[in-house]
Amino acid sequence: MSSGADNDNIILHCLIVPCGELHSLLRDQVVQVVTVGRSQAVSVLEATIQSRLGAPFNNIRLKIRQVYPREAPMQPQDLISIFFNEEPRADYFHVVAQPLLGSE
After folding, report:
1. How many CB atoms lie within 10 A of CB 2?
2. What are the b/e assignments for 23-54, b being 16+ CB within 10 Å?
3. Rounded CA gap, 96 and 94, in Å?
4. Looking at residues 44-54, what average pLDDT do you find?
5. How many CB atoms lie within 10 A of CB 84?
6. Secondary structure tally for the chain: helices H, strands E
7. What is the pLDDT of residue 2?
8. Does residue 65 register a pLDDT over 60?
9. Domain spans in the chain, listed from the N-terminal domain onward
10. pTM (2 decimals)?
């Protein structure tokens, strides 16, 4: 039996686009599998991805888009639950992240 805390977490498969400031990402850094709480903001997802990328990439702001089960931009203040109210398929990418451009 799973606890309420387990039900609040979601596993997301993230594809990091190696462009701009992230152009030198290693191949094994481009795909990230992260666990975040559904009740947390997208900014927590961003911070989790940044943390996993490590230096020198961990301070690069990211633009994150949901790509499964539908496509939608994800703003830092939005809750993860707005985009994922159930567990997404494990064989798909769920979000794509790329460097945030200065004008965005």
Report:
1. 7
2. eeeeeebeebebebebebbbebbbbbbbeebe
3. 7
4. 97
5. 19
6. 3, 5
7. 47
8. yes
9. 4-99
10. 0.90
* Strand ranges (E), the chain: 9-16, 31-37, 62-66, 72-74, 95-99
CA distance 100 to 82: 21
- 4-99: CATH topology is Ubiquitin-like (UB roll) (3.10.20)
What tokens were used for 94? Answer: 């769920």
Q: Phi and psi dihedrals of 64, rounded to 5?
A: -115, 135
Who has greater pLDDT, 104 or 58? 58
Could you tell me the CA-to-CA distances from 22 to 45, 62, 68, 93 in Å, in that order?
17, 10, 23, 19
| Dihedral of alpha carbons 69, 70, 74, 78, sign | negative
